[in-house]
Amino acid sequence: MDSKREKDQDHEKITAVLLKSRTGEFDLESILFLKLRNLGIHDLGCTGECINLERLDLSGNNITNLAPLASLRLLSVLNLSNNRVSSLEPLRTCDVLQNLNVAGNIISSIENLHCLVSLRKLENIRLKDNTYNYTNPVSLWQCAETLHIERVVGRGSDLYQLCKDIDDTIKAGLYKNGQLVEHSDCKPWVEDTYWEIKRSNNAIVEEAYKQFNDVLHECRLLNNRATHVISQTERSMSLKKQPKQYAI
Question: What whole-number distance in Å separates Cα of residue 103 and Cα of residue 137?
Fold first, then answer.
């Protein structure tokens, strides 16, 4: 019973022992990827000592305070879905954060999202997950308005519902005393080039793409050479099989 209680306490708070046993690393600074899902964690403990951490999955726990994450300057992917988080303020210093999942928490105010505005590399943020029925009190429309979201990526049904909600909100503001109010000075929401796909500035992706093309080119050359050798071999073998003719 005592050993079981100690194990549960370890899981309630993240300790160096838990991190090392989960990752197999001897040094917390060597941990790059960490998955601690559904462990009943409510205290992030020494997570902030994993200063080189790039990907962190803490979904399905009881976390409320994100303060230890403030020191994770290299964190690019963070999954906090299905927790009890109400404030994202500590994430303000996670400068390279690109993907954030906070669906299924208790983020109730639009002010709690202001800290994310300064994260220039943030590309994806999830506040709602229909697959697991995770939501937040704050709406997607408020999130888009605050963070100036340019694109919505996800399932078609989610996008359709979002567009429908936006249209309903707009239409509700067009009527006054039951009459449709016409606005002669209406302007397009965005410029014509707004929805054009922008080329990625990620140097790593560009280099990987270049290397892939080089390897693909070499494979094509090898394939051509192999085809040529096989053709010559087949021609040589067919000549050897022909019956010899003798002149009398």
Answer: 10
- What CATH number does residue 64 fall under? 3.80.10.10
Q: Are both 140 and 240 inside the same structural domain? A: no
pLDDT tens column, 32-74 = 999 999 999 999 999 999 999 999 999 999 999 999 999 999 9
Q: Which helix (H) or strand (E) holds 77?
A: strand 77-79
Q: Considering Cα of 102, then 105, then 110, then 116, what sign does the dihedral take?
A: negative
Per-residue pLDDT, 57: 95
Same-domain check for residues 124 and 161: yes
Tally DSSP H helices, then E strands, for the chain. Answer: 5, 7
Residues 85 and 152 in one domain: yes
Question: Is residue 179 included in any domain, yes or no?
Answer: no
From residue 92, how far is each of 58, 61, 115 by CA, in Å?
A: 18, 22, 5
Q: Distance from CA of residue 230 to its chain's centroid?
A: 47
Question: Residue 126 and residue 153: Cα distance in Å, rounded?
Answer: 10
List of residues 6+ apart from 102 with CB closer than 8 A: 80, 81, 85, 88, 125, 126, 127, 136
State which residues form the domain around 235: 201-247
Q: Are residues 149 and 109 in the same domain?
A: yes
